[in-house]
Amino acid sequence: AQVFFQKGYPAISLRLIASQIANPKDLGISSVVINAMDQAKGLIIIAGPYHSGRTTTVSSLLENVNQRFGKRILTLERPIEYLLVNNKAVISQREVGKDVPTYIQGLHEALDDDMEIVMMSELSEVGQAEAVLEVVESGKLAIVIMNAQSVVTALESFLSGIQPDKAAWARQIVADSLLVISAQRLVTKIAGGLALAYEILTMSAAVKSVMKDGNYYQLNNVMLTSRQDGMIALDRHLADLVKQGVIAADQ
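The structure assignment produced for this chain is given below.
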């Protein structure tokens, strides 16, 4: 909560923390993303613009792990939007700016801890992308929420945060460890409510080739032609939702 003055009068801003977390399948999250959470190590990026349900998606994925596996999970968030209660997993939620000064310090502390899954609610600090890759390289599963319009812009933004002298190292780590990038939107349903629309990139020989050359715009064509690898372009998924009668074509 924040208490402040507005137009000469006291005011308060309250943020609701949800007490229940929906199941990933109920939210319409792709099985490709759900299954990626079962991996022991690697990199998962959940992207989208603001108000696209990214935090809801990641919290649902973490709660799904919590209900099934006895893993140790660390979240670094600003702010904490969902409370995760220990079930089978042991969960530590740390708010950046209160419980830990920066994301980078939280990531460095995770390197020396026995955490198996590390989640970050944003990528906003200089050097944070490198710290994420160090966590991945140490054998942990890292999940990053990013403000990006598409899979391609998310990947470009992530790699642009790497120092030039470490760029080749970063591309190699991403090529070896990337499990999935999902860029999502919330679209109004015909029957009311919101549907989750997304595009998905997984690692394949074609993606590794693009990573090596740095021609990231080619990933759009890869997603269009690699559905057998679990990939899908946003336009294709939107078309699927229209055919299924979930959303209207004008949406």
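Interim note for the steering committee: The chain has a mean pLDDT of 94. The CA atoms of residues 16 and 81 lie 8 Å apart.
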